[in-house]
Amino acid sequence: MFDTILIANRGEIACRVIDTCRRMGVRTVAVHSDVDAQARHVEMADVAVSLGGASPAESYLRGDAIIAAAQATGAQAIHPGYGFLSENPDFVDAVEAAGLVFIGPSAKAIRAMGLKDAAKALMAEAGVPVVPGYQGSDQSPEVLAKEAEAIGYPVLIKAVAGGGGKGMRLVEAPKGFADALASAQSEAQSAFGNPHVLIEKYITSPRHIEVQVFGDGTRAVHLFERDCSLQRRHQKVIEEAPAPGMTSEMRDAMGQAAVRAAEAIGYKGAGTVEFIVDGSDGLRPDGFWFMEMNTRLQVEHPVTEAITGVDLVEWQLRVAAGEPLPCAQGDLTITGHSFEARLYAEDVPAGFLPATGRLAHLAFPHEARADTGVRSGDVISPHYDPMIAKVIVHGSSRAVALRKLRRALAETQVAGTVTNLAFLGALARHDGFSAGNVDTGLIGRDLTVLTEVPDLTPAVTAQAALALVGLDRVPMPLDGFALWSPVAQDVAVACGEEVYTCRITTRAPGEIDVAVNAQVVAARFGANGWRFDGQPGAAVFVEEAVATVFGDPTYVVRRVDPLDVEAGAGTSGDLIEAPMPGLVRQVFVSAGALVAKGDRLAILEAMKMEHSLLAARDGVVAEVMAEAGSQVEAGAVLIRLEEEET
How does pLDDT run across 214-238, given as a tens digit for each residue? Predict the structure, then answer.
């Protein structure tokens, strides 16, 4: 076994690897950018080495600097985590040329699966079923359009070197193909440096089911399946294992296909074979097709660990150190059910835009596993993926595990930045998902319902108001004492755009009435703390006149200063602003241009994704205030429209 390994990554996966290394007595070396100098993975590691810079290109993608750090610190091996250099075969070659061990598959295996078109051809030869499509080298728009027609709409355009939903577009009809192709190729070029795409048949009731495999370079085993069908923009949101509705025949067929795929390329280490499954008529052994193979540890690996009792990172280290596969296929069994929910800093009502900001408070329930790379006080940087944590639960059955997931999400506490926590809670309560009726279109179909935020109740408003004025503490003996009338004070609070007027009347120690827009809420203190109209109060975090009332959902309530006036700047349709820090990739208009509501005016690249900025109304461009290639801050005005005549 290795004495020391370097982890060529950051965030929650770096922390996850360190956890296993600590248990195994393996010394760890962390690398970090300037932005991550005080990050959690740096704090956890035995040694830390700075790579400098801020962006991935300046830090975590610098393979030469990472190898030099490993050599300087006495590391014998490098664990790549996922993302960054984890599936870069040139990096693997460089690691091995430096006399170090790459904890993962060979460069040859990564290259074999690195391009989706070549991988599908290889899988077809190995007897693995593949989706009908075009993977040819002729990338002219005319040929691609013709192939799409031959396959039959709807079709999916996918970057051959892609992943994570980047460079992927669904096309429903021929008229939308040209624009979708150009957009996919542009995003693929930006993300992967390779604009080539493939075209494949889009399954109309698709489920995304993947199989965890593990190989020693010669033989492989599978650790059963995960269902990753709950997706938005082709990115996974909640994963589970095993897949609902899975039959033993289907599981055997998929598992054997995945093992054939791994053994066909001499796979070593942890990998995932992803399948698209036709869920229109139940799960059938003849209704699944190979999509791609991820030649690394997956984000969602904890659900597999939960149902099998296997530590996949430990297996990675042992096999990379030359040990045989820890067990045979027949030794692996499924116990219970597991879910994983991905908690992100993102603005759901604004279209799931990635968010930045300081995590003023972060806490997870003890009953759930929370894989995270951040702590209270940390800042979500615009340079990296905005994941805050993965919340994982395990139960004896799917129903039990789902109840645990709902409770874990309701008890997760995040303050200081917007998150998708309420959205995750809504998904966990969704009737179709609860019944196991999942497919990749579920979120899109029910997005309006899933993103609805219930109105602030008088009881929650009253609790927030008490917290904001400091009266949610343990009562003092003289609280409410007055010679004549009860002590009262007025405070205005707001949640979103809605303002609430609260009159707080302290009648006696532990006895307060809060009139919320004239509706009185009785706040009473007892042995278990404050209760509001008889119901227990929620956990609350207050910072700088903002109260975060945790629960399902969590509400952010701010105190309104009576002297404040609404600035109104940027709230009309005249200004097109950057919703987050990013790079202006393209600008499509110039001064004087006529635009219609919904027209694409510019593309902003941020958090590894391209975001189209659209006109909010019909009008004339008065001024273009940013050019392609410029870096802008959140809120920066990029384009201004001429004022509407009144």
Answer: 999 999 999 999 999 999 888 899 9
CA distances for 609 relative to 187, 429, 496, angstroms: 8, 29, 27
Q: What is the rounded CA–CA span in Å between residue 116 and residue 292?
A: 6
Residue 108, token pair as written in the block: 């040859």
Which residues, other chains included, contact 309 with Cβ-Cβ below 8 Å and sequence gap of 6+?
335
Q: Is 296 a catalytic residue?
A: yes
Res. 483: pLDDT tops 70 = no
**List of residues 6+ apart from 68 with CB closer than 8 A:** none
Pairing type for strands 498-508 and 346-347 reads: unpaired
Are 306 and 394 in contact by the 8 Å Cβ rule? The answer is yes
Q: Which of 10, 169, 251, 296 is catalytic?
A: 296
Residue 12 CA to residue 390 CA, distance in Å, equals 8
In 359-467 the beta strands, taken as DSSP E runs, fall at: 361-363, 369-372, 379-380, 387-395, 413-415
Tens digit of each residue's pLDDT (9 = 90 or more) over 267-285 = 999 999 999 998 888 899 9
pTM assigned to the model: 0.81
Strand partners, 614: 600
CB 595 within 8 A of CB 621: yes
User: What is the 8-class DSSP label of residue 385?
Assistant: -
Beta bridge partners of 489: 504
SS (H, E, C) 271-315: EEEEEEEECECECCCCCEEEEEEECCCCCCHHHHHHHHCCCHHHH
Give the strands of the sheet with 546-549, arranged side by side: 535-536, 529-532, 519-526, 511-516, 498-508, 487-495, 555-559, 546-549, 540-543
Identify the three-state secondary structure at position 33. coil
Q: Which residues contact 571 (CB under 8 A, 6 or more apart)?
A: none
Give residues with Cβ within 8 angstroms of 174, minimum separation 6: 145, 148, 149, 153
Retrieve residue 563's tokens.
């002297």
pLDDT value of position 598: 83
In 3D, which of 515, 508, 504 has the Cα closest to residue 482? 508
Residue type, 266: G
Query: For residue 292, what are the β-bridge partners?
Result: 274
Per-residue pLDDT at 632: 86
Closest among 461, 456, 453 to 537, alpha carbons compared: 461
CA trace torsion 68, 69, 73, 74 (10° rounding): -50
- Rounded Cα distance between 296 and 52, Å, is 26
Average pLDDT, the chain: 92
Question: Residue 25: is it exposed, middle or buried by C-beta count within 10 angstroms (0-12/13-18/19+)?
Answer: exposed
The two counts, helices (H) then strands (E), for the chain are 17, 40
Q: What share of the chain is helix, strand, coil (3-state, %, to 5)?
A: 25, 35, 40
Q: Which two tokens stand for residue 227?
A: 């269902």
CA neighbours closer than 13 Å in the CB half-sphere of residue 328 = 1
Instruction: For 351-383, write each residue's pLDDT tens digit.
Output: 888 888 899 999 999 999 999 999 999 999 889
Intra-chain end-to-end CA distance of the chain, in Å: 76
Task: Report CA Rg, the chain.
Answer: 27
Longest dimension (CA), the chain: 91
CA pair distance 432, 442, nearest whole angstrom: 8
